[in-house]
Amino acid sequence: MDKMPGLGDMAGMLKQLRQVQGELVKAQKELAKETVSANAGKGAVKVTMTGDQHLTDLEIDPGLLSAGNADRLKELLTEAVNNALNESRELAKKRLGPLTGGLGL
């Protein structure tokens, strides 16, 4: 006799949840090892970021470092970092999407 009708197989559900949680942790660790790169200004600024959105490298064309280019450099850095963040988010979505399914994570 079921003590709590309507709950179904709680033990089975908990087992599945633990399995998905383990797979998610593994996927997140793997994601932290992957990198994406993005650039701005036709490669004048290049940003490399991990799949878990940590900046790992920043390359700047030496020609942008002159005194008169501060505003342009700021603009290109912002663009390159935002591009890399978008690439990183897409990578995470691709890797974690199948695991999170309809959970909205």
Can you give a write-up of this model?
The chain is an alpha+beta fold and 105 residues long. It has a domain at 31-97: Nucleoid-associated protein YbaB-like domain (Ybab, Chain: A), CATH 3.30.1310. It is 52% helix and 17% strand. The protein has helices spanning 10-33, 70-100, and strands at 35-40, 45-50, 55-60. It has a three-stranded antiparallel beta sheet. Helix 1 runs antiparallel to helix 2 (70-100). The two termini are 36 Å apart.
Keywords:
105 residues, alpha+beta, Ybab, Chain: A, 3-stranded antiparallel β-sheet, 52% helix
In short:
This protein is an alpha+beta fold and 105 residues long. It has helices at residues 10-33, 70-100; strands spanning 35-40, 45-50, 55-60.
Helix content: 40-55%
**What's the total helix number?**
2
The CATH architecture category of the domain at 31-97 equals: 2-Layer Sandwich
Query: Could you please say which CATH topology of the domain at 31-97 applies here?
Result: Ybab, Chain: A
Which spans have pLDDT < 50 for at least 5 consecutive residues?
none
CATH superfamily of the domain at 31-97: Nucleoid-associated protein YbaB-like domain
Order of helices and strands: HEEEH
